[in-house]
Automatic annotation (TrEMBL):
This is T9SS type A sorting domain-containing protein. Residues 1-20 form the signal peptide. The lineage of its organism: Bacteria, Pseudomonadati, Bacteroidota, Flavobacteriia, Flavobacteriales. It comes from Snuella sedimenti. Keywords: Signal.
Length: 269
């Protein structure tokens, strides 16, 4: 799909009606109505150096745009900031994204790119053309947390690196009873009952699947999503892994077995 600049998109999204050449006033009116009724969510990303990146997502009437790349609705990131937050569409970085009708069940992926470690913030700037206010969240897929940004910032101290498939813009928390009220299979119950503990005395990670599954790989992340250690090819149902070389603090343990994965947050002391 042909790439377009931020300026082109702004002209298309906000000033197309003025540049639309036709003698048919009804066509002008319908086009103006369509663009005037685009619902917009504007968010601001504050970088570690204090600079602010403005992002926008627009919800189009009659599904004029899609979740993919749409010529005339999406604007590629043409900047080279050392620290940035962008919409991710087809593995490319965008600063404006046009999608279909507003659907509060959808999540839209964000890519966080940091050359510098430091404090970052994501705020809701404003909503446009919504008849009633909507909730806006930043979803952290690593920690499975939702931060509502309508009145408060999402704030975190992040290490340098690229964070893909972790942060999303969301519009409701997935905590409906229907999602968690399903009947678990025997395998799912066993995975949820896997023992994952930090042993203070020996500074080891203890994992026990109760002789139900074999542990294949154990990966430990810090709360910023950085990989701290990987223990592959374990092939045991019980294992202890020394953590002497890992700094103290909260960590995420991801256990991959021959029947699925399970994760848990632990405190390394």
């Amino acid at each position: 799909m042909k790439a377009i600049t931020n300026l082109c998109v702004l002209l298309i999204l906000f000033a197309t009606v003025n540049n639309y050449s036709t003698n048919n006033s009804s066509q002008k009116g319908s086009l103006a109505y369509a663009f005037d009724n685009i619902q917009r969510v504007r968010i601001d990303f504050t970088m570690p150096n204090g600079y602010v990146r403005h992002l926008m997502i627009g919800f189009t009437p009659d599904n004029a745009a899609t979740d993919g790349v749409d010529y005339g609705y999406d604007a590629l990131n043409m900047d080279t900031y050392p620290d940035d937050l962008n919409w991710m569409i087809a593995n490319e970085r965008y600063v404006i994204q046009g999608v279909g009708n507003f659907d509060d069940t959808k999540k839209y992926p964000l890519g966080l790119f940091l050359t510098n470690s430091g404090d970052v913030k994501i705020d809701l700037d404003r909503l446009e053309n919504f008849e009633t206010p909507i909730d806006v969240f930043i979803y952290d897929a690593l920690l499975s947390t939702y931060t509502k940004i309508n009145e408060n910032s999402y704030a975190n101290t992040m290490a340098s690196g690229e964070y893909l498939n972790r942060f999303y813009l969301a519009f409701k928390e997935d905590n409906d009873p229907g999602i968690f009220a399903k009947t678990l299979t025997t395998e799912e119950v066993s995975l949820k009952n896997t023992q994952i503990r930090y042993l203070n005395n020996t500074k080891e990670l203890y994992v026990n699947t109760n002789n139900t599954f074999n542990i294949e790989t154990i990966t430990i992340f810090n709360i910023h999503g950085q990989k701290l250690s990987v223990s592959p090819r374990i092939n045991k149902s019980t294992v202890k892994i020394p953590l002497n070389s890992i700094r103290t603090g909260h960590g995420i343990v991801n256990i991959t077995t021959n029947h699925g994965s399970v994760a848990k947050q632990i405190l390394i002391q």
